[in-house]
Specification:
Strand content: 15-25%
Radius of gyration: 31 Å
Number of helices: 5
Strand order of the largest sheet: 1-2-3
Order of helices and strands: HHEEEEEEHHH
Largest sheet: 3 strands, antiparallel
Structural class: alpha+beta
Number of strands: 6
Length: about 180
């Protein structure tokens, strides 16, 4: 899927900051409980190492994550260590949510969550950094009703059958109709 689209480059920054959010409490605890000499070592080696690893992984995740909408499906390719490809049928898309959180607003971006029928509590697809125009384009493509190609063929077949087979009508004599009218 070389022709797929990527999220905005700011996704790397957003992923790093989101990842650091989970490290805040351990960093604060280690910084204050560490003992003599440890806070300096911690600040000089461990924090930059965490930032470097988190930044490298976030960049690779962003670089490998691609999506595209084809005629009837949303294709997603993702994964750094474990490669994963997903195919979501447009007809299964139940909701398309756009939001601009604190991390997206400085870049003028939105986060998109796509949920499908039968999905769990988590969204099936989450694009954390898209331009608003790209998000609207994606929404328009995914929620557009697919054209039914077979409808024209069915109508044509029915019309042909109608013209080919003569209709046979059963008739009743008038006196039988009059008798039925008196009964009813």
């Amino acid at each position: 899927m070389t022709d797929g689209k990527r999220m905005h480059w700011a996704a790397v920054v957003i992923m790093v900051l989101s990842g650091l959010k989970s490290f805040i409490i351990p960093i604060i605890i280690a910084f204050f409980i560490g003992g003599t000499g440890f806070p300096g070592l911690f600040a000089l080696i461990i924090i930059p190492a965490i930032l470097l690893i988190s930044g490298g992984y976030s960049f690779l995740y962003w670089f490998m994550y691609r999506y595209r909408v084809e005629d009837r499906e949303l294709h997603i390719r993702q994964g750094v260590l474990i490669k994963k490809q997903r195919y979501i049928q447009r007809s299964r898309v139940q909701s398309f949510d756009m939001s601009a959180g604190l991390l997206q607003r400085p870049f003028g971006l939105v986060k998109v969550k796509i949920e499908t029928a039968g999905g769990g509590s988590e969204p099936d697809v989450e694009l954390i950094a898209l331009d608003r125009s790209e998000a609207n384009r994606l929404k328009k493509k995914l929620l557009k009703k697919p054209q039914e190609e077979t409808v024209d063929e069915e109508i044509q077949t029915d019309d042909e059958a109608f013209h080919e087979e003569p209709i046979q009508m059963n008739t009743l004599p008038i006196r039988n109709l009059m008798r039925w009218r008196k009964i009813g």
